[in-house]
Specification:
This protein is α+β, with helices and mostly antiparallel strands. It contains 17 helices and 18 strands. 37% of the residues lie in helices and 20% in strands. A hairpin with a 4-residue loop joins strand 17 and strand 18. Strands 15-12-14-13-17-18-16 form a seven-stranded antiparallel β-sheet, with helices on both faces. The chain has a five-stranded antiparallel β-sheet with strand order 5-6-10-8-9. A four-stranded mixed β-sheet has the order 1-2-4-3, covered by helices on one side. The protein starts with a helix and ends in a 16-residue tail after the last helix.
Amino acid sequence: MGDVAARFAEIVGDTNLLSGEAIPEDYAHDEALTTTARRPAHLAKPGSAEEVAELLKAATEHGVPVTARGSGTGLSGGATPREDSLVISFERMNAVLEIDTENHVAVVQPGVTLSDLDEKTTAAGLGYTVYPGELSASVGGNVGTNAGGMRAVKYGVTRHNVVGLQAVLPTGEIIRTGGKTSKVSTGYDLTQLIIGSEGTLAIATEVIVKLYPRLPHGATVFAPFETFDEVMTVVPKIVASGLAPHILEYIDNLTLAAISYNEKLSLGVPDAIRDKAQAYLVVALENRDNDRLHADIEELGGLLGDVGAMDVYVLEGASARKLIEAREKAFWTAKAAGADDVIDVVVPRSAMPEFLRKAREMALSREAGALGCGHAGDGNVHLAIFCKDPEKRKQLLTDIFALGMELGGAISGEHGLGRAKSGYFLDLEDPAKIALMRRIKESFDPAGILNPGVLFAERA
């Protein structure tokens, strides 16, 4: 064992440090479709913030790159390490430290999964509302990528739901940002700067998340449309209505057919309607009062009918859950179908029809495919890209990302850039902004050990 490995083992204990071929393959990648798995040199499993601090100090001293890892469910290669790196896995730091029912927050370690947190908060009648589609995802991973999901239309993404952090700088200093307060106006907001930084600035070792009351009554409304433009015509009307849906999704016809087949989902849509429908809208409502919920459903049905919905289906209980669960598994369906990439461009809600139309035209012109679904309520478009030729795919994605930015959007709405999209970011983003981000990176991480190649792509 080399000097640096011996030092890492001294910090976390021999049983919590693996090196070389002893590291399981799972730690060599996340779920991104286009990044190459790379086994790190070392894998450490710390049990405390103090151990993380010592690991980072040693890594800085020896010039060892560091990648933080939660559950490895990311979709952009942000948890894919370098071969010469140390992976810090938070699987041992997985405790819910506190459920504060007076301040409506939970204090958790970064390795806590969403399913664990959901289970612990249910008993208090509260819940953490960020659900990016994979309940095995960790809260620390949410923080790293600023994860979103279907409920963002009502509750926001991770940065709207995290009020404080404990974080370790690469120099080994442990800092606290924010807290249990609902607002702060004291200096730079370091909490928000660290959220979404994909492990390039600091490593979160404790997270304070907002909790919301669980509303007892809910239903999901499902409506087919002959055109996608009709879907997008009704979305702003729903948002402006005051109905406050916590899910507002569109699904194209091919994607719905695929997830219905994979998940054995039966929605009772007649063949005559299914054959004509090009897009579907999924709207989930919740309320503390059942009568008010049904009044909201009736109002929503009227809005949908006014803009051309072919029919309106109201799903409750198990049927509603099965539809939402199937939608959450759209990535896995696309992967199983042979998608070559999955992207998550975000544009202003009003620009979604133009973006989707032009993105599909770009794909067809290259004999490729761009299919999918997305968060209609907040303009986040998820497209499965089918294009085998790497060079054609690279140009297609460049053009699609450029289109999204021209329409006032961004390359990623919730998956992050990681290693998979960082090259496009550097090519398309304002150089002045990139230069500023580099200076921020250097001030946090002067030795450049935290996730090199993520956000700022390593050039050949």
